[in-house]
Amino acid sequence: MTNKKPFYISTSIAYVNGAPHVGFAMESIQADSLARWARFEGRETFFSTGTDEHGEKIQKTAEAQNTTPQKICDKNAAAFQKMDRVLNISNDDFIRTSNKTKHWPSAQKIWDTLVLNGDIVKKEYTALYCYGCEEFKLEKDLDENGHCPNHLRAPEEIAEENYFFLLSKYSAQIAKLIETDELKIVPSFRKNEILRMAQDGFHDVSFSRPSKKLPWGVPVPDDESQNMYVWCDALSNYISILNYAEESDIFQKFWTEAEVTHVIGKDIVRFHAGIWIGMLLSAGIKLPDNIFIHGFLTSEGHKMSKSLGNVVDPFSEVEKYGADALRYFLLREVPIGKDADFSRERFEEIYQAHLANGLGNLVSRIVNLCKKSEIFSDEKRKTEPSPTLDFLKKIEKKLADEMDKMILHEAIETVFSVVDYCDGRINEEKPWELAKTDAEKNKKFLEEMLLCIEWIAKHVSVFLPETGEKIKNLLQTDFSEIPMLFPRLEKLNLPDENSSSQPTKKNITFEITSDAEKNGVYAEYVFLDDIAVKRTPKGMQKRCKKIAKEWLEKGGKENNEWKKRIEEADEIKRNLGFSPDKYINASHSLANLVEKNGKLPNFTNIVDLYNIISLKHGVSAGAHDCEFLNEKVRIDITKGTENGEYFTAMKGKEHLDSEKKQIEKGEYAFFISEKEIGCRFDSAQCEKSKILEGNKNVCIYFQAPKGKEIWAKEAMNEFLELCEEYGLV
């Protein structure tokens, strides 16, 4: 029996320190499909999304850009709202935590309730704080070097007097809720992770910061010296959007009486299944029923990073391929709860096979055949028994079961299994021949196929709303005009990179100090862009990635392990066709690779290959966005903070903390001013390949800003000319 309870579903709220990327688009599409399915089943549905707009990163970004936090939030929140429109996200409302009339009263009301129940206390403490995460860290949260694993730097020790939420008192209760599935974690394999956290016992949580340190935030009720920290502020968005402060009818219907589902990423499980549940228990508010947890998207095998230039922009993908193509790829290719890779090659392969040659071609074939036989859409056919109708009923039951379990990748595959069914039947029956020999049998067969198209149009709308609507509209016509649902890639009107205007290049020069130069440091002005640069053979790419992944997993701290790795690196180089002794750095190896294969390597190949080869020679690559560089860059060996030097991590970049940081002696770095260090040349992979004074053959290369694809080819030609000049090819 269909569940007729009201249905409330939310995404997490996106932090507005940058523009939307495809990872958040994936979360929105997943939640949207679940919301559309609930409406499809006839359930009253409320779908919420929004933006998290407070915190120190926003404050510091505003200061660096000489603007206000509110203006930055307005700009970036608008970008997320635009993304929702472009992707046909059917959210009913959009909450912003800077909204003083709707959000602030609810956040302050739940704060007052927690205080009334004795679960918020004020105390002094000393703790480690990561500004990148905007979170206090425990020792167990740090890596072996004492660094935040997300930001690869040590958190700062701070002493403050803040308010704390006594989460620890709810640990046992939360554990029982998760263990008994009263709070259901989807997928189930994520359940044990948060269950162990609860069983080990949650720590009390800092719930405020001094307003002089965190001026951009929701004020703590009755204490002007403190502003709410992220937890009470951001997490309460799920009920503030329903006007919890006013105990509204909409809150009663879509929270108290509804089935409630949160869709979140795996990195924020502790906050939602721990802190948020503790808050609701303390306040006596109904708990959510389900927490749907998705994995991460990587890009071409690497974590998406603005500094690497591999962040996938959902707007550009929609412009090239259409919203439903992106929706399909992210729904079909990302298994529930697991990580997945956004590969350009795989995206285009899926587009061509499943959409252009699959659904699009099928609709065109059937409609054209029906048109020739003067058969049109007819609702009455749905009541006529047939083997096809039996098949569709079986498929519909399977689809309902998968959607009930929120297994989205299998559900959309089930819808597209009807495409495979139809293709198989068409190949068996050969209607183009049947029309000549048995017109009545052909008519009956085509009516069954048209019934399948009607079924697809109805059900695919849950996942691909634009496509479903196009098919429905087509079926209401006389088939005189048949639109192409998914143009084949060779017919796509993609931008011609040769016709675009070339941006003005910066005339960047590199000053390499004598201390650095004597150790073999040099720089190359190379522009790389994964969109424009062709791929190398799959075998080499997979081999490099496989070896690199194995090395990272093993850790390689023992000397004998490093010897083995060096031997493997030499073997890789020999297999690629160059001598390990002759080609000792990235410039040499890449030049030879280009000469050998006649193709240009992409950014992924360069990073993988360089990291492998660097292990032997103490060389690391620095890939940096040139748009943030001044015209002159000094490469030098650091003298340390005590000599006035400090690290600002690309001053002005929104996604990095621009506060002054200490810098150690003896590291290679480039300076963007006399004492200001823009980047340190160290490797996240291992301490062994960190670039310190005494390393040889250090190569630094620079990457073009995203979207300036034309730079890549010209830069690669410059790169090859440079290699020829030095006799490397």
How would you sum up this structure, described in words?
Strands 1, 2, 3, 4, 8, 13 and 14 form a seven-stranded parallel sheet that branches. The protein is built from 24 helices and 25 strands. The protein folds into three domains: 7-294, 3-Layer(aba) Sandwich (Rossmann fold), CATH 3.40.50; 342-491, Orthogonal Bundle (Isoleucyl-tRNA Synthetase, Domain 1); 509-725, no CATH class. It is 44% helix and 16% strand. The model is unreliable at 494-508, 519-563, 575-630, 650-658 and 682-729 (pLDDT under 50). With 729 residues, the chain is of the alpha/beta class. Helix 16 runs antiparallel to helix 17 (439-460) and helix 21 (559-575) crosses helix 23.
**Distance, first to last CA:** 71 Å
Query: How large is the share of residues in beta strands?
Result: 15-25%
Low-confidence segments: 494-508, 519-563, 575-630, 650-658, 682-729
CATH architecture of the largest domain: 3-Layer(aba) Sandwich
Measured as a percent range, the helix fraction is 40-55%
If helices are DSSP runs of H or I spanning 4 or more residues, what is the number of helices? 24
